[in-house]
Amino acid sequence: MPDYQPFAHLTTPNADLYRAVMGAFVRAKRRFVVHLRPEDVQEELNADLGAVADALGRLKDWGNLRADPDTSRVTTVEDFHRARFLYQLTSEGEAAEHALAAFDEALGRRGALQAVALADIVTQLRALLELAAQPTPDPAKVHLLLRGLVSRFSDLADNAQAFMGSLQRSIDLHDVDVDAFRAYKDQLIDYLERFIKDLVTTGAEIATLVGRLDGTDVDRLLAMAAAREAEDAAPGADDPREAEFTRNIALWRDRWTGLRQWFVSEHQHPSQAKLLRARARAAIPALLQVVSALNERRAGRSDRSADFRTLARWFADAPDEQTMHRLWRAAFGLSSSRHLTVDADTLADRDEHPVTAQTPWHEAPPLLISPQLRKTGSYERRGKPNRIVDRSEQRRALAERAARQAEETEQARRRLLTRRPMKLSEIGLLEPAEFALFLGLLGDALAARRPGQRTVTTTTSDGTLEIRLTALDSGSAEIRTPEGHFQGPDHVLEILDLTATEPEERSA
């Protein structure tokens, strides 16, 4: 096999010229031009023809280009024997250019938190749910919807990863312009807050739709997509469609599993959306701390890192080791502290030979310190180990309390489910658990409502309840509880159970 070196032109003195020549061939191929003469490359690059010819020859030796004799302009025997070549990209050279283009794109990518992608995913999942309800869905529609869903989800995940990476570099002040950071910090924090809000509301809806699709045999839809892709398999010795279908169905199942794990939390495995939401929330106070640190630097105040750098310079300038020890003790105050700790033998000796409180420490008899205490800073007294405390009774009490609270919460949920849209003034008396859940649902709805919006629809963070709240022009509502009365403007409220399979169950 030839010793191809398609990346050798990157480390040579004329790397810029070689990259420009290869770029000319890539652009030509986009225009469906296969072969180029040296004159064509020279005209496009506006460079010296001799330098271009030498670059073409070197790229041919490295395997990036292929040279074929150019006989189209031969009119004499002398022209035939003169070296004239047509150049075109080799498969190795084209693969190297694709790899370099992907590297450049990934290196300069900033990424974004795409709230629009979340809405698109919801739309596609609803369409898939409608197709799943049909006895014989159209395979073409299923395939196109799944491909669009995977493409949108991949963009969302990749952009979120790139954005959080660039955000972390901004927080660490790596490769970031300090003045530019001060200028756009407010927009960045507002951007994060809006995405977190969209991720809470839309992410819960996506999790609900994914769960409903899992309950409708989503594997049947994945098999349709895999079978449609297997129809284009190239012929071979064995059955190519069967092998292609097996590979495709495994790939589609992995994609669906990735989508589910991104939005649906499992036991001891929180979803990627939940982790992203937590990371974005943690980034906001971190950004504010960066702003505070920048303001302190601009005001001329010293910070800990500057103090440590100054101390390191002092250590580097110290003339001898004794001076370094003195500097260490003066900076950190880590002198010997044997007089602060005693053991049982020392206490017994002090009982036999007491020392008055007026005795200076440097004149008092020395203390007896265990070698283990001197070495590790901890001391274990001799004797039996501590008895293990039996916590089974406490665990049982906690389990009973958790079960009782879960039962009260479930009863409160059933109490608050509405059979029809009703006013807040019609709710009446609520028990403490019911009132606490009601306040949480009301807070979710009011937080999702935007200025000027009269009707809002949102879901709880676990995706089990849907709340629809409509403001009224007049009237007030009063909800009574054992602890007091809750008053405010009247609204029309509707609470639906999204886990129910039938409409009657949702309002029951």
Any chance you could write out the topology, listing elements then pairs?
Blueprint: H1 15-30, H2 38-45, H3 49-62, E1 65-69, H4 77-81, E2 85-89, H5 91-107, H6 115-132, H7 139-171, H8 178-214, H9 218-230, H10 240-263, H11 272-298, H12 304-317, H13 321-332, H14 344-352, H15 371-376, H16 392-416, E3 422-423, H17 432-448, E4 455-459, E5 465-481, E6 484-497, H18 503-507
Antiparallel strand pairs: 1-2, 3-6, 4-5, 5-6
Q: Can you give a write-up of this model?
A:
This protein is an alpha+beta fold and 508 residues long. It has four domains: 8-106, Arc Repressor Mutant, subunit A, CATH 1.10.10.10; 111-287, Methane Monooxygenase Hydroxylase, Chain G, domain 1 (Up-down Bundle); 312-379, no CATH class; 408-507, no CATH class. The chain has helices at 15-30, 38-45, 49-62, 77-81, 91-107, 115-132, 139-171, 178-214, 218-230, 240-263, 272-298, 304-317, 321-332, 344-352, 371-376, 392-416, 432-448, 503-507; strands at 65-69, 85-89, 422-423, 455-459, 465-481, 484-497. The longest helix is centred in the middle third of the chain and has 37 residues, at 178-214. The protein is flat, with a radius of gyration of 36 Å.
- What percentage of residues falls in helices of 4 or more residues? 55-70%
- What percentage of the residues does DSSP assign to strands (E)? 5-15%
Order of helices and strands: HHHEHEHHHHHHHHHHHHEHEEEH
- The 3D shape can be described as flat
Low-confidence stretches: 503-508
Instruction: Label the CATH architecture of the largest domain.
Output: Up-down Bundle
Overall tally of structural domains: 4
The neighbouring-strand order within the major sheet is 3-6-5-4
Q: Biggest β-sheet: count, sense, barrel?
A: 4 strands, antiparallel
Give Rg in angstroms: 36 Å
Counting helices, strands and paired strands, the structural category is alpha+beta
CATH topology of the largest domain: Methane Monooxygenase Hydroxylase, Chain G, domain 1
Q: Termini separation (Å)?
A: 74 Å
Q: How many helices does DSSP assign?
A: 18
Number of strands: 6
According to CATH, what is the class of the largest domain? Mainly Alpha
Mean pLDDT, as a whole number? 77
Coiled coil: 389-419
Protein name: TIGR02677 family protein
Keywords: Coiled coil
